[in-house]
């Protein structure tokens, strides 16, 4: 580090300071802290999970989760937890908050049957901050049949100047924070509006405000986490040529551990599909990539006797043609152009590493991540994953 002003000695102007610890704010500071914490955890006997760098085990009695300097500990007994805390106190200045009630902006509520997570205080906070925007009340994230495109972006300088005064990115960022943690029902809408954040138009802004109104109206929704059995089940879906600007299909995935939702995603596929089957197949590939990672985690946990996990993951899709293509080794003029990278999923299937099954479109929980739904369709999803 350069010598700070006022501390430079004559004749030593060309020297620099050797740091005894990382400085706050530098790119390498977080990495330095991670290595320091990892070394300490190893010293006290904790071992890192090979498939997840933020998870540590001590035999089969302790599971420790790390996010920067926030730590959550699970133990079979209170004594097991206290023993680890005592060792950590000898290395760091700890602030112990007790049973987890709030972590990383998410509220935790434990009931006799399940764990509920929500962000009601955060929604109240951002609504109070932006209530001067006259946020409308809405019963849907995006109304069925509504489509947004780049043609709705500002066309004149006056329109662009007007949009500069509108906090589009700020509001979008707040809603994105919700979508990735406790509100899968707004994932598609947030992804849709994110595509215009560099040059949003008034139509995009009014649509975003309606989404905000929907979130505020449904702020009492709490994501239900209960796991009576440990099986990985993934739902995959796609909307063929959904994007009006480039005709790229939208993909969606929703993955549960037992009946507890643990990861979900809305995404634009990487290339234009030539058929609905191709779009669905590409979405299935993205879903199975995530399922494979989760399966590796669960298998390693089982090898450490932390959980009992022996079943194969299941992939559910609502397109029989895509399922048949995944299972088949036959190529023809309608499928031989599909890129090699997408045949990854067929390789895993031939190795018997997962099962693939058909699910009716009405029962496909990934449908909400690919397009706007009707009120009844949205209600069906909400009843499956939320408590309200």
From TrEMBL:
Cited InterPro entries: DNA/RNA_pol_sf, RVT_2
An annotated GO BP: DNA biosynthetic process
Domain Reverse transcriptase Ty1/copia-type: 1-142
Signal sequence annotation: none
Pfam families for this protein: RVT_2
PANTHER family associated with the record: GAG-POL-RELATED RETROTRANSPOSON, PEPTIDE SYNTHASE GLIP-LIKE, PUTATIVE (AFU_ORTHOLOGUE AFUA_3G12920)-RELATED
Protein's recorded name: Retrovirus-related Pol polyprotein from transposon TNT 1-94
Taxon lineage: Eukaryota, Metazoa, Ecdysozoa, Arthropoda, Chelicerata
């Amino acid at each position: 580090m350069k010598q700070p002003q006022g501390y430079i000695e004559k004749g030593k102007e060309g020297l620099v300071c050797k740091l005894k610890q990382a400085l706050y704010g530098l790119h390498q500071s977080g990495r330095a802290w991670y290595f320091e914490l990892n070394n300490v955890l190893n010293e006290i006997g904790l071992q890192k999970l090979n498939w997840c760098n933020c998870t540590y085990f001590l035999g089969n009695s302790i599971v420790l989760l790390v996010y920067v300097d926030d730590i959550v500990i699970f133990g079979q007994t209170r004594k097991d937890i206290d023993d680890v805390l005592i060792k950590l106190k000898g290395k760091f200045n700890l602030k112990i908050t007790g049973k987890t009630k709030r972590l990383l902006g998410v509220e935790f509520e434990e009931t006799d049957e399940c764990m509920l997570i929500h962000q009601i205080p955060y929604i109240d906070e951002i609504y109070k901050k932006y209530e001067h925007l006259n946020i409308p009340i809405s019963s849907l994230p995006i109304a069925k049949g509504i489509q947004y495109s780049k043609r709705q972006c500002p066309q004149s300088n006056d329109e662009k100047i007007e949009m500069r005064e509108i906090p589009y990115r700020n509001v979008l960022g707040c809603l994105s924070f919700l979508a990735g943690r406790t509100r899968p029902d707004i994932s598609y809408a947030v992804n849709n509006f994110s595509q215009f954040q560099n040059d949003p138009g008034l139509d995009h802004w009014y649509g975003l405000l309606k989404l905000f109104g929907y979130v505020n109206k449904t702020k009492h929704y709490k994501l239900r986490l209960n796991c009576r059995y440990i099986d990985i089940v993934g739902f995959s879906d796609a909307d063929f040529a959904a994007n009006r600007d480039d005709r790229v299909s939208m993909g969606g995935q929703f993955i549960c551990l037992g009946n507890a939702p643990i990861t979900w995603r809305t995404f634009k596929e990487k290339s234009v599909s030539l058929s609905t089957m191709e779009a669905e197949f590409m979405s299935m590939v993205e879903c199975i990539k995530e399922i494979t990672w989760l399966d590796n985690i669960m298998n390693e946990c089982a090898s450490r006797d932390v959980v009992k996990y022996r079943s194969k993951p299941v992939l559910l899709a609502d397109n029989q043609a895509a399922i048949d293509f995944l299972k088949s080794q036959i190529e023809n003029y309608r499928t031989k152009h599909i890129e090699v990278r997408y045949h990854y999923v067929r390789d895993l299937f031939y190795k018997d590493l997962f099962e693939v099954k058909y699910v009716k479109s009405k029962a496909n929980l990934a449908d909400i991540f690919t397009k706007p739904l009707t009120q009844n369709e949205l209600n069906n999803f909400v009843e499956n994953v939320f408590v309200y």
